[in-house]
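Request: Show me your protein:
***
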Amino acid sequence: MEKKDVQLTIERLEQILHIVQEQQHVRVTELSERLGVSEPTIRRDLKKLESMGRVRREHGGVSAVEVALAEPPVVQRSIENREEKQLIGRAAASLIKDGETIFLGSGTTTLEVARALEGKKNLTVITNALNVAYQLAGNENITLIITGGVVRHSEFSMIGHIVEQTLKDLRADKAIISMRAISLHDGLTNMNPLETMTDRVIVQCAREVILVADHTKFGKVATSIVAPLTTVHKIITDEQTPLDMLEKLRALGIQVIQA
């Protein structure tokens, strides 16, 4: 392809992306007419944009993808949607029975789960989160197992091979996790590739996976795929999560609880 043709293709991709983001959904025929190129050319362009994670192709057209932005540090996020996270945390804790072994992942919502465990008896909690470990360290009713690993400072979490190897030797009744982005099409996704590798092992360490997520996490896609949505057995969210999203999640066989 000549340099001039490459430049025209780049300009056309930018035009397509602008139109899709503006309208959210647009048909191939409309793009062909507006840009003055053939439908096969448009389909090739859409394939390129989809491979870049910028759009999602659908029958006869294309839809915009909302890309999750990089998360601020966990300390900063702890004050965002705090009331919703506290309600979600209490709802998740209510599902935990005395005597169970649970894995509790990193994040601000999972920290609220840890805070709500007060009063539980004879629990074993496995965690890769420093803030969760600190919260639970003084509770004599909890046997606390800390995975070790490489500290991801912004998240107060431990990731990498040490965590993954430790979890391969352990089993939990329930794994309670949070996630950067949740999409019906792309499933569970995260921003950090190393953290994603650890997350893939986490969701395999328990018989039941419970996802805790406020409404801001849904309908978004981040860089790295962790697992399909059907990996999750229960989702606990807040009352602001859209009804159509809840219905589609339930249609996948996932139990959804609104706190």
